[in-house]
Amino acid sequence: MEENLLKEMDLLRFTTAGSVDDGKSTLIGRLLYDSKTIFEDQLEAIKKSSKKHGDDYINLALLTDGLRAEREQGITIDVAYRYFATPRRKFIIADTPGHIQYTRNMVTGASTANLAVILIDARNGVVEQTCRHAFIASLLRIKHLVICINKMDLVDYRESVFHEIMNDFGDFASRMDVSDMTFIPISALNGDNIVDKSEQMPWYNGSTFLYHLENVYIGPDANQVDPRFPVQGVIRPHSKKYHDFRGYSGRVAGGVFKPGDEIIVMPSGFSSRIKGIHSMDGELKEAFYPMSISFTLESELDVGRGDVISKPNNKPNIGQDIDLMLCWFSANTKLQVKGKYILRHTTKEVKALVKEISYKININTLHKIENDHDIGLNDIGRVILRTSRPLLYDSYRRNRIMGSVVLIDEFTNETVAAGMIR
Question: What's the CATH number for 2-215?
Answer without folding.
Answer: 3.40.50.300
